[in-house]
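seq:
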Amino acid sequence: MKKLIILSATFLAMWMTQSCGNNAKNPQSETPVDSAKDVNETVKPVDEKSSEFAVEAANGGMMEVEMGKLAQEKAQNARVKAFATMMVNDHSKANDELKALASNKGITLPAELSTETKKHIDDLGKKTGKDFDKEYISMMVDDHDKDVSKFEKASDNVTDQDLKTWAAKTLPTLKAHQDSAKAIKDALKK
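struct:
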């Protein structure tokens, strides 16, 4: 009987050691964006390009809202504050639309911002006054340049028709944001 218990304990210990091995992915070490992409890759609710676009758009939209909220509090320039309010309102609306669309399609979106994005927000939050305004608007110009490019590609290339339509419908708003951010950036240089 003792041999059976020892043998069972040995096998149990070996099994536990193997199952806790370093080869398995640790979900706690992954970023929310990576985790969402992994789930979508496994479940395959839509094609890979479509689900990756949805995940990246969700992360970007959440970032715009959080940075906008920060700018509403910290910005000194009235135009920067107004732009931040527009970011919060427009991107909150787009985020809600994307969440509903993703839910209907079974696409998993990140529940929180990526670690890299949180770091950008933290770094921005350390700035004050005109330095904050200039950095925020500069980030918004760069981000909207990337967003417009991604949404243009998505409105042409993703195969999921609903996501393609949403990208095309959202694109004019992103272009308006891009133009506004560039105009404010130029005004802040003076």
